[in-house]
Amino acid sequence: MAFDRSKIKNVVFIMLDTLQFNYLGCYGNETIKTPNIDRFARQSVLFENAYSEGLPTVPVRRALMTGRFTLPYGGWKPLAGDETTVTDILWGRNMQTALVYDTAPMRLPKFGYSRGFDYVDFCPGQELDHTTFENEPLDPALKAEDFTSPSMVWDKDGNMIDDDSKQLLDEIGCFLRQQQHRRTEEDQYCAKVMGRADHWLQKRRDKNRPFFLWIDSFDPHEPWDGPSVWKNEPCPYDPDYEGNPILLAPWTPVEGRITDRECEHVRALYMEKITMVDKYVGRVLDSLREQGLMDETMVVLMSDHGQPMGKDEHGHGIMRKSRPWPYEELVHVPLMMHIPGVEGGQRVSSFVQNVDVTATIMDVLNLLDTEDGVSDHGMNTYGAEDFQGISLLPVMQGETKSVRDFAIAGYYGMSWSIITEDYSYVHWLVDEDEKNSADCVEGADKEMSEEMWTCTAGAQVVVPEHNELYNRRTDPFQLKNIAEEHPEIAEELLQKLKLFIGELRTS
């Protein structure tokens, strides 16, 4: 059938936290099993070059909810009262809205990321909820040190290595306290979130009205506790591994602390968790099909960011988001869209930013050109006039080959990067001379110590001393810095980056 806005009634947005794009079969991973997401990709438009611009968890969602970039304006912070969100725009229209989530950073006090949803179902227990359970008695059979490698915690003399070791054990202990009563795979966080989302779809919504459903799953975020960990069985992606399951690793550099073999095992556990997430995402997708909703529902599936997972191309020497480093393994995200009437099976190479997802949703709902106003009943209404995103419908319908010539990414006040077809360039806002030259951007002169800029315990604002340039065609995972060899290219990209962010700040 041909694309017809009037026939699309609903939107389902599925966010999977910390899912690296190249850990999916549809993005070329030949080892991992993700049959449900791969099937969805075959029936959807897959974007090969989607990038999150402001990182990590909270800034990405602010951009998605508001359709506006965050990198030039602010990092990890609440929604402001004067920021217009998707649910603000949908308020007062014939559209019921629902949020089902377990992403604890969205629920931080006064952060306001559930604002405007008619129905909100929060599934507690994920990261940042841990301290709720810190006084729970822990089953003596469960010991934190049994869920990480001893070499990450103790030195050769049996002494605790440092405070990072203690914090790691404390973090694992908090997690075990709240999860010690887990019995089956259905107790996994993702299973609960997807099950409760499907319950809303089948039992709670008004089936005579269109809907917007935002499903936000913190999995496959760490801890890397796939089903094998709780069954005390070998990891299916690493059955020969001998040693403790490494449910969490320190936020220190891996060199000298985590062996290559242990890093490999962590990645296997991560893959297992992604396969589990795929299973429960599949149940929601199957439910939409069984209810006959796919022909009238736009479905978006994406992640907010990836995850550093070890040395070299896996993570530039760290595990977890413990440094404000906007490298490929973190900023390049999977993105797929099913839109009734738009040909599925396409693979789009155009650069895409997360704000473009919001613009596309509003375009499909025919609300992209709406403006703020007052209803007939004297109530304020809101439009998308402040959006900075670009609708992706033209590129999906073959009207144009691309919507952007490059993408940007970074951490507010700490790092920026620009990604083009040929190169990627990373600019660190730490050297005083460089900070002073960044006069077009708010945050260039800020202290490098936001109270919370990521939800990873023990994270530190440590960045390289020099800006970096990489050949994206021959070195896609940014391993050989060629900035000194090609200073003219580095300078050109820096100026393009500054100009673009400066333009954003005036729009």
From TrEMBL:
Domain Sulfatase N-terminal: 9-366
InterPro entries (alphabetical): Alkaline_phosphatase_core_sf, GAG_Ulvan_Degrading_Sulfatases, Sulfatase_N
Gene3D superfamilies xref list: 3.30.1120.10, Alkaline Phosphatase, subunit A
Pfam families tied to this protein: Sulfatase
Protein name per its UniProtKB record: Arylsulfatase A
Source species: Desulfobaculum bizertense DSM 18034
